[in-house]
Amino acid sequence: MRVDRAGLPRGEVPGAFDVGAAAYDRLVGANPGYHANLRRSADRMRIPGRGKGLRLLDAGCGTGASTAALLAVAPEAEIVAVDAAGGMLEAARAKPWPPSVRFVHSRIEDLAERGGDVQGPFDGILAAYLLRNLADPDGQLRAFRALLRPGGSLAVHEYSVRDSRAATRIWHAVCWGIIIPSGWWRTRDTTLYRHLWRSVLAFDGAARLRRRMLDAGLTDVHSETMPGWERDIVHTFLGYAPTEEAKQ
Ligand SMILES: C[S@@+](CC[C@H](N)C(=O)[O-])C[C@H]1O[C@@H](n2cnc3c(N)ncnc32)[C@H](O)[C@@H]1O
User: Fold this and answer.
1) Comparison of pLDDT for 173 and 20, the residue scoring more
2) Is residue 59 part of a domain?
3) In this structure, which residue's CA is closest to atom 19 in ligand 1?
4) Which atom of ligand 1 is nearest to the CA of 126?
5) Which atom of ligand 1 approaches the CA of 28 most closely?
6) What residues make up the domain containing 105?
7) Whose CA is nearest to atom 12 of ligand 1?
8) In a domain, 211, yes or no
9) CB of 133 shorter than 6 A to ligand 1
10) With CB atoms counted within 10 Å of each terminal CB, which end of the chain scores lower, N or C?
11) In a domain, 16, yes or no
């Protein structure tokens, strides 16, 4: 499949994840910080009271790694986990989950039209490694804001290297030294991993993404990066749906 400078055409991304689904957990498991950093982003949402009485959305849940991070910080919340790739969802559903976790096969862009209680409102949304893969990130940020209850939090857990030359150099080295060869070794297809490399290089710097979140109507927007080798490479971008008082 053709991967151009910005990565795959965004409509083809869920299909590429289907091809990579069987190998996904082993590949991300080889990154020592992967699960801990998802958990860090979920923690940064500061979900109160173990999530009791709250509804959370895991947007682009994949094989459930980000769902597990949400469940760890909010074991009493109801969690709706959505993904467009059937193969990734199949791997997620094969894991043990409490009845409070539900998986939904849908493009995130179509969620609001599905009706029923999957359309919100939510008290918190985690979108881990999703936004960069969407054709219209601004439209989706506005849709996330509309899905949130006033005061609810959005955590965008995402790669962003553009603001740091050192991070960009490390990203090239990690992709060509580890991620692309490991992906080839496991799946005999490098499409998804070259998409990852290119799409991260083409994606927003941290300042630009914070600006997009403000423009989408989120408040108190800020970001924090990760420790270790992912410093200035992976970040949690946080924003909140305005409360009624803030709107007046
Ligand atoms: C890199 S994986 C991340 C999975 C999980 N959040 C994690 O942290 O491990 C990105 C996921 O986003 C999904 N995805 C991409 N575009 C999507 C869309 N438009 N709607 C819903 N899911 C999408 C892919 O199918 C894939 O499972």
Assistant:
1) 173
2) yes
3) 107
4) 6
5) 9
6) 30-160+204-241
7) 60
8) yes
9) yes
10) C
11) no
By most ligand atoms within 8 Å of CB, the mutation choice from 17, 56, 103, 197 for ligand 1 is: 17
pLDDT in tens, 161-202: 999 999 999 999 999 999 999 989 988 889 999 999 999 999
Q: In whole angstroms, give the CA distance from residue 96 to residue 106.
A: 21
Cα(153)–Cα(136) distance, integer angstroms: 20
Query: What was the pLDDT predicted at 247?
Result: 63
Question: CATH code at 140?
Answer: 3.40.50.150
pLDDT-derived band of residue 246, with 50, 70 and 90 as boundaries? low
Mutate to test the pocket of ligand 1, among 109, 129, 157 (most ligand atoms within 8 A of CB): 129
Structure confidence by residue, pLDDT tens digits, 136-154: 999 999 999 999 999 999 9
Closest atom, ligand 1, to C-alpha of 108 = 20
DSSP letter, residue 188: S
Structural domains of the chain, count: 1
Amino acid occupying residue 22: A
Q: What is the DSSP letter of 157?
A: E
83 part of a folded domain: yes
- Which two tokens mark 153? 């939090």
Please report which confidence band the pLDDT of residue 127 belongs to, taking 50, 70 and 90 as the band edges.
very high
